[in-house]
């Protein structure tokens, strides 16, 4: 493991207190034409979370702690740092701390499963920009894309099975699973493997979980109304299942590695309320979060970078 002396998990970031919500959203939307009323609407979503905060930072730190323990179990003793694109600890702050601690070579993992310009390329660019701000910053070796990793599928499948356990036994075999990912503009999707990776990953998870009926949906669209984005929206998927006479459905946010606000509000509040109004039983599977299989995958990616 002499190839690296540290690990860097690269995540989106999120506000950790109510006063941070609007400054965070301003950073996220900088350079984009997002109407002020839409930003205020999203701010209110964050304010409805326990403590008026996003759990993303805490969950990412738990993923980092789990990866460190798993690496230690394998005889690899390196610190695991977290750097955020849009809030503290910003990537440049983390890289500065790593530099001050004497780290010179790090293995970086982008915590986004499906690749497109917004979900992958910007992360790589932001790491490069952060390194340019920190004299002597560690050299970064990125782990490869990991959506097809078996341990990711295993973690997600276990989350699906747990959600299905909440469905009456007589109905489980007929209960469909809807996998969700963040919607993106169709033009962006056409230039990336995003949909293919999402589809292949969902198929692998459904196979492991023994789901005979499953589908894809997209959520959390934030673009201009006239711009085409990936569909179906989760709301349309919920309405469609109800119209088909489906009694219950499991929704699994496969494109999100943490149960953060876009999951806790867009699914647990909005989609669930729509399901209730439509007469559809709504069962939400957790994101992978710090599932042992997922943190084991993170450790394996680090070992692979050094191999």
Report what the structure shows:
The model has no long low-confidence stretch (mean pLDDT 95). 47% of the residues lie in helices and 14% in strands. It is globular, with a radius of gyration of 19 Å. It contains 12 helices and 8 strands. The longest helix has 18 residues, at 56-73. By secondary structure, it is of the alpha/beta class.
According to DSSP, the number of beta strands is: 8
Q: So what's the overall shape?
A: globular
- What is the string of SSEs from the N terminus onward? EHHHEHEHEHEHHEHEHHEH
Averaged pLDDT, please? Answer: 95
Lateral strand order in the biggest sheet: 2-1-3-4
Unreliable spans: none
Radius of gyration: 19 Å
Given helix and strand content, the structural type is alpha/beta
How is this fold's topology laid out?
Layout: E1 6-11, H1 21-28, H2 36-47, H3 56-73, E2 80-84, H4 91-100, E3 105-110, H5 117-133, E4 139-142, H6 150-164, E5 177-182, H7 186-190, H8 194-209, E6 214-219, H9 234-243, E7 248-252, H10 261-264, H11 266-278, E8 281-284, H12 292-306
Parallel strand pairs: 1-2, 1-3, 3-4, 5-6, 5-7, 7-8
Notable characteristics:
307 residues, alpha/beta, 4-stranded parallel β-sheet, 8 strands, 14% strand
Short description:
The chain has 12 helices and 8 strands. By secondary structure, it is α/β, with parallel strands linked by helices.
